[in-house]
Each structure stands twice: as structure tokens, then as C-alpha cells.
Amino acid sequence: MAKSSPSQRKTSGRVMHEFKHGELKSGKGGKGGKVKSRKQAIAIAMHESGTSKYDSSSEKKKSLAKSKRKESKGETYQQAKEGKSHVGARGRRESSRGMGGKNATRTTRRGSSGARSRTNAAHKRKSSSGRKRKAS
User: Fold this and answer.
1) What span, in angstroms and rounded, lies between the C-alpha atoms of 9 and 41?
2) CA triplet 30, 32, 37: central angle to 5 degrees?
3) With a threshold of 0.70, does the pTM exceed it?
4) Burial of 71 by CB count in 10 Å (0-12 exposed, 13-18 middle, 19+ buried)?
5) pLDDT at position 81, please?
6) Cα–Cα distance between 32 and 116 in angstroms, integer?
7) Is the dihedral of CA 69, 55, 77, 79 positive or negative?
8) How far apart are CA 55 and CA 12, in angstroms?
9) pLDDT at 88
10) 6-20 vs 57-73: helix axis angle to the nearest 10?
């Protein structure tokens, strides 16, 4: 069996967390009700993370991408119930291995990415220094 990537492990961990807390639902839009079987929860986790041997490679890519979209938008059941913008991002670096990146210089902020806030701060410094020169 092939080793799963860190992002796949993170997704399957999030699904199992939802199962343990009674937040995991089956079916389209969660209309199938709460998942009560551990085996079913594992099957859902493997499908969402793209590690299931019963899916084709294109299906695996599609399901992992869908899960990552849900996580980044904050639409997972865990995020809805616990009020988190990123799973596992609180107080850590935005580009940590758990977040799928290699390294970062700043820790995360609620609701904004570290890269975006750095570029905005740099633009503000440049524009404010330009104003001071013109005034004097």
C-alpha cells in the first residue's frame, strides 16, 4: 500500500474527528444522516482524502481537491460547529507542513493569509514614506 501524503492524512484525520464528535454525515448534502459505523467513517475518510483503492486515479484527485476546497472555505462540518477558518492553523505558521507548505516567516492571522498581509504592509510602508518626502 502506498504511503499517503501529509494533506491526505490531514483530510482523513479531519473526517475521523468529525465522526468521533458526531458531526460526520453521509449522502449528498448530509441528507443521509449521521454516520454511526466506524467502518463507514473510514470509507468516507479514505474517499475524501483520495486514498481509497476502489476509486480510479482521476476520482481520487477530484475528491481530494473537493475536500481541500471545503476546508479552505470553512465549509466542513467540523469548522461549522467549532467556528474555525482553517483546520489546524491556529497559532501555527501558514505554510507549515500541516498546511501543505514548506516554511513561513509569520504565524497565521484569523481570516487572512500571511502572504497577503505581508504584501499589503509593504505597500502601505512605501506609500506612506512617499507622502512624507513630498511634504518636506
Assistant:
1) 14
2) 100
3) no
4) buried
5) 77
6) 39
7) negative
8) 15
9) 55
10) 60
